[in-house]
Amino acid sequence: MKTHYQILIVGGGNAGISIAAQLLLKSRKLDIGIIDPSDKHYYQPAWTLVGGGVFDIQKTVRNEADVIPKNADWIQDSVTTFQPENNSLTCKSGNVINYDYLIVAPGIQLDWDKIKGLKETLGKNGVCSNYLFNQAPYTWETLKNLKSGRAIFTNPNTPIKCGGAPQKIMYLSADYLRKHGFQDNTEVHFYSGGTSIFGVKKYADTLNKVVARYGIHTHFSHNLVAIDGDLKLAYFETKNANEEIIRVSQSFDMIHITPPQSAPDFIKNSPLSVKDNPLGWVDLNKDTLQHNRYKNVFGCGDAGSTPNSKTGAAIRKQAPVLVKNLLHLMEGVKMNEVYNGYGSCPLITGYGKLVLAEFDYNNKPMETFPFNQAKERYSMWLLKKKVLPWLYWNKILKGKL
To answer: Which residues are catalytically annotated?
Structure first.
């Protein structure tokens, strides 16, 4: 096994694979290793559609070996510690690998254990989540069996990948209940640790109308902390009028949970993380994506400290910036590429309806198409369901988009 790479990439997800592919399109002579323990590679954005009953879960997974760029080495291992002063890291196997340049793109960690009782009941008792490959089909099963009662959809108080996902499945579910005549017998509730429906006013205005259309009950500044699946009770922390933290409970017949999220523990506990940040993001310059303390280290994707929406669309804009800046650094040329914080959230608002939100660091819309993207459109639904999955497997992962 090789113990040194010119460029070492931690993470074989969207960010790691697309960056490796883009680098190798620039030069096949680059010596690149990709560390990732997973056998499978997932297209996670489609799991909302799986939960809504309109996408085949098997079309969201491929073998990791099949998406690794041909001229890169796949190191099927996990990183345990980083030694950036020595330009090295240590793997779970005990192997130490050295590098000239490091790219950190491990993705985000789902902190299921932060919700007491969740692991014991997830996947039964009407407790579902689209955030796992083996759980998304249960969302659809639960929704189909809901004829009356209360459906709850939660959003944590941490940043999450695909910030609109908790709402997307809620709108699909509300639309399903309406189309099948169960709307009058059911209540749909949104419990969010955040303070508003969406951070960009242009799209929030539309979403508030969607909420009103479906008669959804919203509860902001409510963070899910515990669940009792047998009793079908969810427990939330919020503040009373005196700003004191209190706990409230709500019964449910169906609950879709978005777990709290953070950087993976091996990042959080490393010298690469933002100091004294409990979520442990990789400490990056938000413009260049270079590490703020270790100049031969870069980062991309959901584990980074950049204050953008954590989406695949953000990675698509970050990757070429990182690639060009890394190559400039290697060539001794001034880095001049800047990431503007672009993020995109295809907000499904019902079957055949989608609002394509696109915006920058300042929550200013950055729209692609020559029409008002805050309007619900069938064409954007087709983009989400048909076009984006094809682009992911055939263009993005191959470094061509």
So the answer is: 162, 345
